Every structure is written in C-alpha cells, then in structure tokens.
Amino acid sequence: MKISAKSADVASSRGFLDGQMLIAMPAMADERFARTVIYVCAHSSEGAMGIVVNQAAQNIRFPDLLVQLEVIPAAERIQLPTTAADVRVLKGGPVETGRGFVLHSADFFIENSTLPIDDGICLTATLDILKAIARGTGPHDAILALGYAGWAPGQLEQEIQQNGWLHCAADQDLIFGKDIEHKYEHALRKLGIDLGMLSSEAGHA
Hints:
Distance between the termini: 25 Å
Number of domains: 1
CATH topology: VC0467-like
Structural class: alpha+beta
Oligomer: single chain
Low-confidence stretches: 1-14, 200-205
CATH class: Alpha Beta
Largest sheet: 9 strands, mixed
C-alpha cells in the first residue's frame, strides 16, 4: 500500500484507526502477529499500514545497522551520541523486511519525506533521519522498524469483526518504551483487560 500524507488526515470518526494501537487477540490465526501490538500509521478505504512495536529484531543493534548501511564508518561507532546507541531495532512486520521505517516524535521533520500521523508521532523512511540520529540532531524519541504490516482494502476491518484485533489509544510508552516484552500486557491494561482473563471469544473495542 502506498503511504501518503492524505491517508494520515482521514478522520477517525469515519471509523479509520490511524494513530491507534492494534492488539492481537488470542484467536489471531496468523502466527506472525501472535501477541503483537501494532501502531497504525495509515488507514483508509485503500487499506492500512502499521508498525509492530513489541517484537525486537534479534541480534541487530542500531549502531551496527548504521555501519552496515554506510551511514557512518565503523570507526565512528563508539563515538555515537547516547540517543543513537539507545534506539531499538524492531521487527516491524512481514512486508519489506529489508527496509527500515523510523517511528519518531514530531520534533524532527523532513519535507516530502516525513509523514505526520497523530498526536506528535511521525514516520520517516529515508536514510536522512538515520544520519541525523547519528549526528545527535535527530528526534528525541525514535524506534527503527524493519518491515511493516499491511492490509488490503477492507481486510483490517474484517479481521477486527472476526475478533482478530482489539484497539486502543496510543501513548508514548507503548510506542517508544524500552520494556518491549511487556507492551502487550500494557496495551491490554489500557482497555481494563487482564491477560489471564482474556478469552478468544472476547468482543472488540
């Protein structure tokens, strides 16, 4: 699905979920999305696109990626600002897993490259933001996701009706929090749900 600024402007009152979090139900049939929490970056009649925020990319560190992508030479890896060294690398979804997508705070913006989403959250998918983070001039908060989750027109709505997903309001900690392992429980608690009491037959929010 093509990401466009127009998609981000769709009013949530029309039933679209951009800027919301999706929480996988226990009944989720697709194992790739079991216990995932996804930030919805774009949702319209054309489909939906989101970033999984609670699956760490194993054995991949942000400084190593900067060297691999030739953003910095290997010798400069130890000179990176703390903010760059702390950026978490996540598995953002099964689509285009070789491509990086940076979810970040709205204090950083690149004309024609950054997509404002909602409530101070933006998405940028160019090397320029990685260079800025390496220089210490990037956004205050950022995560780098490899790949994304995508839905065809009407597919996400159908999955929600089939009890595949719950949804809740996003917050900074759910997106950028360091405690990746507990984001699923955190998201459920926002809806007043105890994971131990959640059954696969629960309705959707």
